[in-house]
Amino acid sequence: MKFSIRKSIFVSFIGFLASSLLHFERGIDWKIQSLFRNNGAWLIDQNEPIEKIVFYQLPKFFLIAFGVTLTAYGLKKWHKDKKFPRRVFYPVLCLILIPLVVSLAKQFTNEPCPVELEAFGGSQKISAIFGQCFPGGHASGGFSLLSLYWCCRRKLKGVIPGLLAGSILGAYQIFKGAHFFSDTLCTAFLAWLICEMNWSLVKIRIRRKTKYEQAKAAIGPLLLLSAAEPNISTHDVLPPHGNLRGDEIRIFQQGATKESG
């Protein structure tokens, strides 16, 4: 299942705005959050050590280990093939960039966590508090795995790891009062948007490289023959490609100049 990049970026941006409005509107979001309290207590005790290890500390460890493993594999492949493996380093970029963007956003939104508010058993009033709980930072690591969608050649199965990881990590934070539902939803749309924008840049570079390789394979030997035989012109050895011939020559010559440089 494949999605158009442009349409998907537009939908992601609209989803990001809608989830942000849901958060700042507060009414619906607060009603949803109240479902995760039972007799004045959150469904998950944030001081419970086992749940903290399983749903907070271990996921961070696995995400870091996954990023380090991909980086090591990419460096090895780069050294072996002498070509920069963009498809390998692309998810690493997302693993770094998405949590970083979310962390920076939290510094400016100044939004409280549910557990801090009087309405949910806290001690602070909404008009007086400054927090760092929007968007959701913990879930952003899991949603960074949405980048695997493009590594799986845009097949639906590539979305599943990111959706599962981000949703589970986000649910843990919601159930213990560390985040609103809208925090996690907004983080999901923001992560997908960043993944799409990153991939659009990687795709442009891959496409340019592919065009050069195709031009090199098609007309490279003919141009070399023309250079070796001064009496033979380029147009004598090139097959008739219509209007595309000039583009192929230009692409090849640009690539050859970069290689020689």
Main traits of this protein?
261 residues; 70% helix; two-stranded antiparallel ribbon
Short note summarizing the structure:
By secondary structure, this protein is mainly alpha-helical. It has helices at about 5-25, 25-35, 50-80, 85-110, 135-145, 150, 160-175, 180-230, 235, 245-260, and strands at about 35-40, 40.
Structural class assignment: mainly alpha
Order of helices and strands: HHEEHHHHHHHH
The fraction of residues assigned to DSSP E strands is under 5%
Outline the low-pLDDT stretches: 241-245
Task: Count every beta strand, where a strand is a DSSP E run of 2 or more residues.
Answer: 2
Number of helical stretches of at least 4 residues? 10
Net shape: globular
Strand order of the largest sheet: 1-2
| Helix residue percentage | 55-70%
Rg from alpha-carbon coordinates: 25 Å
Main beta sheet: strand number and arrangement?
2 strands, antiparallel
